[in-house]
Write a structure and sequence with these properties.
This protein has 168 residues and is α+β, with helices and mostly antiparallel strands. The protein contains four helices and five strands, in the order H-E-H-H-E-E-E-E-H. Strand 3 and strand 4 form a beta hairpin. The protein is globular and about 50 Å long. The N and C termini lie far apart (50 Å).
Length: 168
């Protein structure tokens, strides 16, 4: 109850106040599939020094690239061979607290849901200092061949969605 009162006072969602704790003082969140630490840079912000809304997606994409690299997916090779492509077809974000120039953040990939030919990635952007929830983002990507035709989601992408490295 106190958490909701603080959130109302500061006019922010309760989720923005950081991790919720259970009776044992442990966080109620499951661990992310992947985390990427970075910082909000001057070029990410507007004239007020707060992140420009579209730049959030650059940060999320940076985390996605790091995720792919960490799990053995060679993006450069995929682009060179055009074996498949994963264009982004939908993005959305919710912003809870301002991200200012110099803010160290952690981008958590909290869910990766593969479909037949698409995959949905969900991210949480959190303050490194206090774990406060700054924003959430959702990105949908569709697998296509070199000619632009939709194809089944490649096994390499389906495998990394489990949070396990690809074999090989």
């Amino acid at each position: 109850m106190a958490r909701e009162a603080v959130a109302r006072f500061f006019e922010v969602p309760a989720a923005a106040l950081g991790p919720e704790l259970n009776r044992d003082g442990l966080m109620n969140r499951k661990p992310p599939l992947f985390s990427h630490e970075t910082m909000v840079r001057l070029y990410h912000t507007d004239a007020a020094g707060i992140i420009f809304y579209g730049r959030l997606f650059e940060l999320v994409h940076e985390a996605w690239e790091a995720f792919c690299e960490a799990f053995g997916v060679d993006i450069g090779r995929i682009l060179d061979t055009r074996e498949f492509l994963l264009p982004i077809v939908h993005v959305e974000a919710d912003y809870f607290l301002p991200m200012r120039t110099g803010t160290p953040i952690r981008i958590d990939l909290i869910d990766a849901r593969p479909g037949n030919s698409s995959v949905t990635f969900e991210y949480e952007l959190r303050g490194l200092r206090d774990d406060a929830l700054l924003a959430k983002a959702r990105v949908v990507q569709v697998a296509i061949d070199g000619a632009g035709r939709k194809i089944p989601l490649p096994e390499a992408i389906r495998t990394i969605c489990t949070g396990r490295p690809t074999p090989g």
